[in-house]
Amino acid sequence: MAVGKKNYQNTILDIAEALKLSPATISRALNNHPYVKEKTRNDVVEMAAKLGYRRNLMASGLRSNRTHTIGLIIPRVSMFFHAEVITTIQNDLHKHGYSLIICQSNDSVSMERELAETLYSSRVDALIAACTLQTVDFSHFDKFVEHGNPVIFYDRVPVEDYKATLIKGDDFKGAYLATSHLIAAGCKRIAHISGPLTSNLYQDRAAGFLKAMEEHQLPVNPDWVFHQELTQGNALFAMQKMFTTGAGPDGLFADNDTSAIAAIEYAKEKGIIVPDALKVAGYSNDPRTAIITPAITSVEQFPSLVGRRIVETVVELLSNDAEGPTYKIEPVMIPVELIVRKSTSTN
Amino acid sequence: MAVGKKNYQNTILDIAEALKLSPATISRALNNHPYVKEKTRNDVVEMAAKLGYRRNLMASGLRSNRTHTIGLIIPRVSMFFHAEVITTIQNDLHKHGYSLIICQSNDSVSMERELAETLYSSRVDALIAACTLQTVDFSHFDKFVEHGNPVIFYDRVPVEDYKATLIKGDDFKGAYLATSHLIAAGCKRIAHISGPLTSNLYQDRAAGFLKAMEEHQLPVNPDWVFHQELTQGNALFAMQKMFTTGAGPDGLFADNDTSAIAAIEYAKEKGIIVPDALKVAGYSNDPRTAIITPAITSVEQFPSLVGRRIVETVVELLSNDAEGPTYKIEPVMIPVELIVRKSTSTN
DNA sequence: TTGTACGCGTTATCAT
DNA sequence: ATGATAACGCGTACAA
């Protein structure tokens, strides 16, 4: 008796009963299994629609060990770069029949650990992660690797060896391009507002900066190199430090656009003319850089390309039924491009 | 024999075996069931940690009909307002032990339908949705309602009655405040760049705009009221239309900041001085409005408050084990506030 | 306080 | 091409 049956939902058994078929046949018909008569399949699909049947992913996943769900851990969705990456990832995954669980770590290592646990409990088929700037221990991802689930790191990736796929931007080149551009524009005393060296991103950008400086035999003033969290407040603080004693820099390369914007605003307030007295370049090509006056030169990271590569990789690794490797040995490199704007103009 | 057992994972049976207990006891210990000896519970927790046990959410969900997962459908994560709302929702839900599946509809109705299907297949405990601007038929959410799963709409909500909770900003008031402010600043010929009237948002904002105009007995020029998708391109087109024939408006209220920014840029290019010759107000208080020159007056929507209320509501509705209603009859209203900046200054 | 036994909805295996 | 049956891992009513 179905009387009083709360939360009633139709299952393949209901379809089977209505069609006088066995549940196995229903399952096969719904999963495009080859050995199903054309008419039977049509009947099943029709009846499923009629009964409003929706596959229960928990039951299916429990049995088949595949959830068709991918986990994603990122610092914040509100950062422009990440927002763009996510959008592409989700759209592309959707085309391949995968869902995406997006989780924010808020740049907290402990949160990142918890989220990894939760996603493992959800038995996602694969995990995509842009780690915290402070993440140096990656053991919370071990379970996925051990269990044969692909792990893809992008943007902020492990520096040491790890059995996972790495997808990264060419941070060295980005920093090198930006710095070289400042030099070509006539800057001689260039400052660098950079992030913490725990992250590969800022290690590489620092190296790119230094390479460009060296190549042109320009001295690097240690008081003008900052390794700090890239917030507006910290950037203002750095500017203050550089411009309150003696002659400040005539060029600034900032490792993110938030810092570059803060620098521009500091300069405006103090009457330092950009680009005449100070040229500024940022990183990420955040939409804000095009809107502020003067518009800021910045490094484009092609987030949607990053997203596309990630999905390509995930799909490829997951289709390796033949027990192929669960990761790619060579990191995937995404190109960068310098977008030149008014903040570094020579007029 | 465990030999050759690929994808081996520890289950409560492994813990039971290791401890010479029954699986039932393990389950109880792990779920904080009252009738478990303190020592037993400790032993279980310890062994679980030792074996690296992680609950299989599919199995537990299948059995208990609760996934501790909430679904979220939004147009785009990259819109500032939504990004902020999401962040709060996820953080707050996490505190209550819920995970969040975030899906983007890309403002496409058919995608929204598909995502609703997928989330239903995942048997999320509740669904949060900010609908597409074109969504007028909400039947794809019916299954959740019928099944007793709370549905919470925010921002873009159904206009007609629907057995779901509504959480909305005070759009009427926001538009009224912005328009009144323009009038108080001396504007007599005010234009309105608005969104499609299929959405409650723009209906309410249009009404707020008209109310303010009426109250001050200002005429509304129908050629200066635009109902269109709120893109940069459309805004530029509207500006062009208004300023190429005769005297243009001296005030503009735009229903989003992207349009307001585009208007400012058009004005800059054409030598129309803002705020002297044209005053502009936007909507959402996007960070870009504070950065552009001149900074733009805009309506703050308190996205984190929206997020907080959403989670409060979800948690409350889900804890209604006692067969309470699955929705709130009264919509929850989130206040708005006008942030005044240079673009409407009277200096 | 703990154990036994069953079922959640689906899919894989074997049989027909 | 289809059916019967077992199993995935867990939670719970009932028994002990």
From TrEMBL, chains A, B:
Keyword tags:
DNA-binding, Transcription, Transcription regulation
Q: Which GO terms describe its molecular function?
A: DNA-binding transcription factor activity; transcription cis-regulatory region binding
Q: Which residue ranges does the record assign to the HTH lacI-type domain? A: 11-64
Q: Which SUPFAM superfamilies match?
A: lambda repressor-like DNA-binding domains (SSF47413), Periplasmic binding protein-like I (SSF53822)
Report which superkingdom the organism of origin falls in. Bacteria
List the InterPro entries.
HTH_LacI, LacI/GalR-like_sensor, Lambda_DNA-bd_dom_sf, Peripla_BP_I
Q: What is this protein called?
A: LacI family transcriptional regulator
Q: Which organism is it from?
A: Pedobacter hiemivivus
